[in-house]
């Protein structure tokens, strides 16, 4: 399978489901298609599977989370393995154990280990090219580690994703890169999964699409083409698409969403909207219609301070293929780790060299 493109600036949700249909592996091929702008609607069985979402205002989001006064809680250790009790792994949804990944001579990941627990909102940060997106793709099962293991709810995953292997957990990857299907309307984009894989009537799908769009703060755009939307609107449409659900099916599996730079290229206000949407689809959030979100946990790769502050609770800092720091978001700017200090301040002086 070819690698994923991450150069474009739009969110593109791809997700696994365990209820049959195409696997994530086949969905990936969509993102590899260089002709993002000329996607055509294909007959049902030729299409890849896409999963969508709905959003809302977050609870308990601090508006000034990075002010100095907020970072005096250093009581929690920054040591790498102290944020969870190793005896209590019942709630671990995803675990990477000593993961290595190289591309040719480039040794990108060099022994990465971490856990994502039920209910967590985790950010992966670190300098460019350090392997953050690679970690997401490995978690999603789009790339296989060269060495090390990925556990999904305690079950070791062998190689790349398959529907069988993913049984028990649904994982969606929302790319910063493309894309909405340009030849489809907003309604068709958001309702894509349901049109393709459910037995719902068109009217019912239209209703759900309208609800999901309303949840992300968009009204009356169903008949527009993506080319008629602003960049921020496209991201919201893509987010709406990433968590749309077939309401006729009872899913008992928790769902994890992985966001790759969801706010890249957005203005500060549009970023805030997207950050709040990410919060709102989480089980600890609620959407614009007041409904709790469905996403059990999520992981966000980001460079944006606003996104770190507003959208995640815990941070994993990746540098030169290793996790060099983990901590709660509020510990980030008071860390004594020189790598973290340099990154947080944007200083040219320090251990990180460009
Ligand atoms: N499929 C691939 N083939 C070859 N090299 C790759 C592939 N995927 C990633 N890389 C390389 O691996 C390194 C890490 O890439 P990755 O996208 O994971 O970094 P990142 O930390 O997300 O970077 P950024 O913050 O700039 O998005 C880069 O040098 C990239 O060029």
Automatic annotation (TrEMBL):
Keyword Coiled coil part of the UniProt annotation: no
GO molecular function: ATP binding; ATP hydrolysis activity
Keyword annotations: ATP-binding, Nucleotide-binding, Transport
Pfam families: ABC_tran
CDD domains the record matches: ABC_Org_Solvent_Resistant
InterPro entries cross-referenced by the UniProt entry: AAA+_ATPase (IPR003593), ABC_transporter-like_ATP-bd (IPR003439), ABC_transporter-like_CS (IPR017871), P-loop_NTPase (IPR027417)
Protein name: ABC transporter domain-containing protein
Organism: Acer saccharum
């Amino acid at each position: 399978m070819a690698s994923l493109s991450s150069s474009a600036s739009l969110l593109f949700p791809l997700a696994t489901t365990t209820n049959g249909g195409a696997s994530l592996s086949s969905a990936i091929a969509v993102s590899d298609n260089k002709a993002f702008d000329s996607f055509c609607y294909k007959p049902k069985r030729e299409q890849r599977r896409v999963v969508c979402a709905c959003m809302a205002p977050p609870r308990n989001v601090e508006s000034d989370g990075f002010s100095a006064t907020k970072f005096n809680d250093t009581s929690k250790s920054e040591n790498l393995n102290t944020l969870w009790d190793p005896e209590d792994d019942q709630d671990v949804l995803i675990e990477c154990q000593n993961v290595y990944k190289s591309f040719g001579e480039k040794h990108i990941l060099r022994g990465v280990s971490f856990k994502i627990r039920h209910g967590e909102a985790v950010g992966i940060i670190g300098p460019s090219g350090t392997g953050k997106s690679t970690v997401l793709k490995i978690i999603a099962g789009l790339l296989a580690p060269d060495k090390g293991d990925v556990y999904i709810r305690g079950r070791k995953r062998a190689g790349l994703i398959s529907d069988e292997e993913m049984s028990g957990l649904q994982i969606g990857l929302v790319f910063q890169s493309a894309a909405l299907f340009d030849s489809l309307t907003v309604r068709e984009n958001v309702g894509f999964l349901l049109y393709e894989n459910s037995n719902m009537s068109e009217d019912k799908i239209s209703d759900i699409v309208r609800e999901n769009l309303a949840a992300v703060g968009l009204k009356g755009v169903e008949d527009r083409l993506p080319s008629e939307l602003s960049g921020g609107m496209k991201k919201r449409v893509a987010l709406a698409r990433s968590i749309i659900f077939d309401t006729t099916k009872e899913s008992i599996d928790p769902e994890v969403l992985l966001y790759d730079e969801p706010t890249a290229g957005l203005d500060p206000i549009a970023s805030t909207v997207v950050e709040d949407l990410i919060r709102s689809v989480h089980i600890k959030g609620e959407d614009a219609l007041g409904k709790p979100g469905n996403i059990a946990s999520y992981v966000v790769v980001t460079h944006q301070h606003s996104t770190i502050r507003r959208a995640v609770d815990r941070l994993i800092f990746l540098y030169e293929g290793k996790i060099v720091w983990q901590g709660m978001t509020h510990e980030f700017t008071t860390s004594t780790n020189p790598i973290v200090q340099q990154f947080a301040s944007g200083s040219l002086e320090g251990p990180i060299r460009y």
